[in-house]
From TrEMBL:
Top-level taxon in the UniProt lineage: Bacteria
Annotated CDD domains: alphaLP-like (cd21112)
Full protein name: Serine protease
Organism this protein belongs to: Corynebacterium rouxii
Gene3D superfamilies, alphabetized: Trypsin-like serine proteases
Gene Ontology biological-process annotations: proteolysis
GO molecular function per UniProt: serine-type endopeptidase activity
Length: 415
């Protein structure tokens, strides 16, 4: 079925070239090899031999085989955000969004910034390419979610002494040479998510202290079980306007009514429930119970504010997730709803806080391209992984406030 949908998608893309007018023709090609996105090319030809071909997106790729990685990733961000803001009315952004430049405007500006004079583009060609970019955006928008489906939420065993576990569910220490090399770390390596070679964040002392009091502690970066088979990460926690304790994670992590428990103190048992989800944004609201506490500081990550200006293209954002820990990467592009970046993430990191200094500006959602499983699984990859999509916190807060339901008036827990 997916192959049929893809065929129809490319048929529609090619049909758009019919609007180029006399004297021009074009095609779009898409190649995938061994699970990698190899190349997407938009090629437009002039039949005037003195003009030659115009290839606007020569190497748009995500694999280590591509030489112009920076240009590739930057163009990827441009393609993703080139289309119109389809859900602007529903989102009700905190600030009026600025007009988003088209793909051709973005690429031209980028080439000029590198000191290469960009030639003028025929308006007919520019319009056709920008139309194609909007269709590409619609195709890739669903993305590859980064909730880990390879888990089973553990059943709490009561009367266990509170201590740092030696081994447990999604908590496995190893000291073998391969794990050390893959994690670029000497000494024991902690694995918490299947398929990750990173040394994962350990259970912090503050979580153990809370567990000793019979409660689970929720803060930025807390790993959580959602339902029976999902492992995700908390982006932020605090209170809503009614004083309810709230945690925010990715919407695809579970469904409304799913029980939530901390993977750092699973012995406490379920301590929250998914009560709301974004309709057009990938976030979920967890209402926490009496056996839960909220904090703005967790496992050496402290956040003092929510939202605010997103970093501009080329600047850095960071994240803290259960699978890959703390890491930073370049921001490629953003609109008022979502951001594309080269921040390392994989399954289990969904919902993790996107950080700029002490601000949580978004939550991790997944890989940029649907059905392409090439996440960041080891430090050796460097920037060679599918770019990461995150949902902006300003959009989440605005959406919650517009709904006037659980979570509206969200504010951080100041501790």
């Amino acid at each position: 079925m997916r192959a049929v949908q893809n065929s129809l998608f490319f048929r529609d893309l090619h049909s758009a070239f019919a609007h180029l007018g006399e004297g021009y023709s074009g095609h779009l090609s898409f190649h995938s090899t061994r699970g990698y996105i190899g190349e997407i090319a938009v090629v437009i030809h002039s039949h005037n031999p003195r003009e030659g071909p115009l290839n606007l997106m020569r190497h748009l790729c995500f694999s280590r085989l591509c030489r112009p990685l920076l240009f590739a990733a930057a163009t990827t961000g441009a393609a993703f955000f080139a289309g119109p803001l389809a859900y602007a009315d529903e989102v009700q952004p905190v600030a009026q969004p600025q007009p988003v430049p088209t793909l051709t405007q973005t690429v031209t500006s980028m080439v000029n910034s590198w000191g290469i004079p960009a030639p003028a583009i025929d308006p007919q060609i520019a319009a056709a390419v920008d139309t194609l970019a909007q269709q590409v955006q619609a195709f890739v928008a669903p993305g590859m979610p980064y909730a880990d489906p390879h888990v089973a939420a553990p059943v709490p065993e009561h009367h266990e002494p509170v201590q740092r576990p030696v081994d447990g569910p999604n908590y496995h220490w190893t000291n073998d040479p391969v794990s050390q090399v893959m994690a670029q770390k000497t000494g024991p390596v902690l694995h918490r998510v299947q398929g990750s070679w990173f040394s994962a964040p350990d259970i912090p002392e503050e979580s153990l202290q809370a567990q000793a009091q019979g409660v689970s502690l929720y803060g930025p970066g807390t790993p959580i079980y959602v339902g029976k088979d999902r492992l995700c990460t908390v982006g932020a926690s605090g209170y809503d306007a009614e004083g309810r304790k709230i945690a925010i994670t990715a919407g695809h992590c579970g469904k409304i009514g799913d029980a939530v428990s901390s993977a750092d103190s699973w012995q406490v048992g379920p301590s929250g429930t998914v009560v709301a989800k974004g309709s057009n944004l990938d976030y979920a609201v967890v209402e926490l119970g009496s056996n839960a506490q909220v904090t703005q500081k967790y496992n050496n990550i402290r956040v003092n504010s929510v939202g605010g200006p997103m970093p501009v293209t080329g600047n850095t954002a960071c994240k803290q997730g259960v699978a890959t820990g703390f890491s930073c990467g370049l921001v490629w592009n953003h609109d008022h709803r979502t951001t594309a970046s080269q921040v390392c993430a994989m399954q289990g990191d969904s919902g993790a806080p996107m950080l700029v200094g002490d601000r949580v500006v978004g939550i991790i959602n997944g890989g940029m391209i649907p059905n392409v499983n090439y996440p960041c699984t080891t430090p050796w990859q460097g920037p060679f992984f599918v770019p990461t999509i995150s949902t902006n916190m300003d959009a989440i807060v605005s959406d919650l406030n517009a709904k006037k339901s659980v979570g509206h008036g969200f504010r951080l827990a100041h501790s």
